[in-house]
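Human:
If only I could read backbone structure tokens as easily as an amino acid sequence. I am handing you a single protein, as its sequence and its fold in token form. I hope you can help me see how the letters and the tokens relate. Thank you; the sequence and its tokens follow:
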Amino acid sequence: MNSKNIDRLIKKIEQIPTLPIVSQKIMLLLGDEDVSLSKVASLIERDQALAIKILKVANSAFYRTLSKVSSIDHALVILGIEEVKAILLAFSIHNFFSGGRDGNFDRVQFWKHSVVCSQIAKYLGRYFKLPHDDTLFLSGLIHDMGKVVLDKYFHEEFEEIVDYVATNGESFSKGEKKVLGITHYQIAAKLLQQWKFPEKVIMEVFYHHAPWHDKNYVNGSIVLYLANIFTKMVGFCSLEG
């Protein structure tokens, strides 16, 4: 794809609207270290789909609870307020880009991949004792959001990429470069920048396939890179590469 078409794609990305009000409120919560559990619980309980997502994550194997988590208050205690805020924001973003046409993209599998990747990234950050590793969970949840953007706003090209990957046995990133000249992680970084996400999150998402190029947040990018690989190794794949 030539530079004019790439410019056209970037302009289209720039026209993607800002996040909904609920997502903006969650962004504010993310920046508030003193936010109360009751305020977060109140926000969750307004949306049944959000509540179900939170409960599913709290009941996942990662947390090994002795009894089933059936209330939002209990889920907040199990997950911790920072993780809940990250899940809320990621789910809100994924929901914002819902409505992609029928095709080869399994949204359920995509969400599972994102959740598992976020958990592994969090644990790797703790294992390696990374300072300020609080962004890794959020970065893991949204690292592949560029694929969701492609499915919704560039669906024909997205399907062409999927077909190219299946036919040629190449990675998804190589297929993107062949068909579009731009990758899902470049698209995600551009959009996150527009939405004024923290620079560390933007860079971790941008470099999650090539962390050795990240000069400022290399440790976080390497952790996300490894988490993505390990997630696929344990069977949670979502459009390879």
